[in-house]
What we know:
mainly alpha, 8 helices, globular
Amino acid sequence: MAKGDRAAFQELYRRMSPWLAVRPRRRCGDEQIVAEVMQETYLAVWRAAGGSAVGWLWTIAARRLVDAFRRRAHHAEPPPAAAGQPMAPAAEEEALAATVGGDVGDALRRLAPELRQVLQAMVLDGLSVRETSVLLGVPEGTVKTRARRARTEMRRALA
């Protein structure tokens, strides 16, 4: 794909788009925004191919989702959350279950959902406090407070 091979790009899209599309849908119930984010993500992938596809794809998609939220924030109400819709398990939850076991995995799973969401956005997705704030629809101070609480609870659970 890095050499401009369209067949390689099509194969990446075929393999990864179902997995990737679930992630923004879990955070945004507006299918138009999700479709725009997916299109912009794959356009960015085509323009700058290289590196590890899975983490790279999600990083691009997460940042495109934050950008979409920012663009829409000036024009309308925030997009509806997708939380009420039946969904497959979050990719973040599957990643945590598969890669974080033992006491750390148990401590993560015991965190309150709002604390775990902040850790997932900032640690797994690599988003900044500001990006996490936009993505979750909470003030930056709330993100910082939740991150601090999550770290404190993790320390306590692992002590």
